[in-house]
Amino acid sequence: MTELILIFISTLLINNLVLSYFLGICPFLGVSGKIESAFGMGMAVTFVMTLATSISWLIYHLILVKFNLLFLQLVIFILVIASLVQMVEMFIRKFSSSLYQSLGIYLPLITTNCAILGAAIFMVARKYTFVEGVVFGFSGGLGFSLVLLVMAGIREELDYADIPKVFKGTPITLITAGLLALIFMGFSGLFSNL
Amino acid sequence: MIITAVLTLGLIGFTFAVLLAFLSKKLKVETDPKVDQVNEILPNINCGACGFSGCNPFAEAVVKEGKLFNGCLPGGSQINEEIAKILGITATKSKVEKIVVCRCQAEVGEKKISTTYKGPKTCKASHIVGGAIDCTWGCLGFGDCVKVCPTGALVLKNKRIEVIFDKCIGCGNCVTECPRDLFEYAPFKEKMKLCYVACSNNEKVLGVKAVCSRGCIGCTLCTKVEDSPYEMKGNLSYVNYPEAKNHQSLDAGKNKCPTKCILDLNV
């Protein structure tokens, strides 16, 4: 249990996928303009990441390890993620059209999101058990959402700030992202005494 | 080795393909082809003038209910007739087409600015603290309305909002956005020039003169011409558009204005 909590907190804050591994930077900068859309994207990523890590774990350990085909891992993971996203999209569209309207446009973006592929690869590289893998995927998604929301909140305020002309737009966003990453580095002291 | 690899990858890919094909059949969402047809006709600028959140919700509602509601304002009568044709109904006559006018046309220099405003550069924010200009009624000149205009009909020049009448579709986004309620609807009648009073300051003469050289001072001169379509509400003149029968009476009132704050609508 302690192990699971450790994985959860470390993935959420210390080894945050976006701010310390620089995965999923594209949606991090692209969808963080508004809190509303950031929340939608965050929820979609969390959902798909949890699902993707669990299915990839099963396929990796039950098929790839058994037949000694570890070199296929990358191809298979991409295949799994892409199909999963498609399936999730169909399900949402069928059963909740309002959720589809808020998440719908973000789902195809997730298909090629490197944060999800990264989570799947990290999971097998760290030799997690199935439950650990699922917790890892879930907390990775949550960490992504957290950072996305924080960034969106800052960017909404930035719209009203009086910033020099040359820094407007992307430059100030990148600077903000850098400062945010720096702040998250502070969490690395969280477990030093354990 | 190669065979197992190919087989495994092929099998997994095949499984997912079958699953996806099966699900796409099973979970197919029926969409009315009419919605797509209506969507194609609509201008797709999502202005919201029809009362729906955008063009797509409007198209869905129109097809579902089988009526046009208020119709598509920017589309004009032609597009509404086409939509009606798809639905198999006759288009009801759309409401009077209208555009907006901005009831403050004073430039920097005409409206006095005696404070330095350093807050967020939006009208809403500066309105809360009393504004970036001395006049408490006039245009603050940060262009909140420019941002919400779907057709780019509003232009900010020298802290003054210019309405490009050809582009304005009367969606009313600026009317709700302006914290000082400066925008007023004017019925758009072809071939007839209209005038409007470009001031919202409801103070008496001294109050207006103290903050702006172009304000309506409530002198009532424009209401005294023959057949005058102008009327006073408090200390401010308004054009009563249904009463405006011809351009002569409008023009006469306009020429009487001592502060030149009655302007032509350049149709």
What does this structure look like?
With 194 residues, chain A is mostly helical. Chain A has one domain (7-186). Chain A contains nine helices and no strands. Chain A has helices at 2-14, 25-30, 35-64, 73-95, 97-103, 107-111, 114-125, 130-158, 170-185. In chain A, helix 3 crosses helix 4 (73-95). The mean pLDDT of chain A is 86. By secondary structure, chain B is an alpha+beta fold. Chain B has two domains: 33-87, Electron transport complex subunit B, putative Fe-S cluster (3-methyladenine DNA Glycosylase II, Chain A, domain 3, Orthogonal Bundle); 98-265, Alpha-Beta Plaits, CATH 3.30.70. Chain B is built from nine helices and eight strands. In chain B, the strands form four sheets. Chain B has a two-stranded antiparallel sheet with strand order 1-4. A two-stranded antiparallel sheet of chain B has the order 2-3. Chain B has a two-stranded antiparallel ribbon with strand order 5-8. Chain B is elongated, with a radius of gyration of 27 Å. The N and C termini of chain B lie far apart (78 Å). The chains are: A mainly alpha (194), B alpha+beta (267).
List the helices and strands and how they pair.
The complex is a heterodimer of chains A (194) and B (267).
Chain A: H1 2-14, H2 25-30, H3 35-64, H4 73-95, H5 97-103, H6 107-111, H7 114-125, H8 130-158, H9 170-185
Helix pairs in contact in A: 1-8, 3-4, 3-7, 3-8, 4-5, 4-7, 7-8
Chain B: H1 2-26, H2 33-41, H3 55-65, H4 76-87, E1 98-102, H5 123-128, H6 144-148, E2 154-157, E3 160-163, H7 173-177, E4 183-187, E5 194-197, H8 205-211, E6 230-233, E7 236-239, H9 247-256, E8 262-265
Antiparallel strand pairs in B: 1-4, 2-3, 5-8, 6-7
Helix pairs in contact in B: 2-3, 2-4
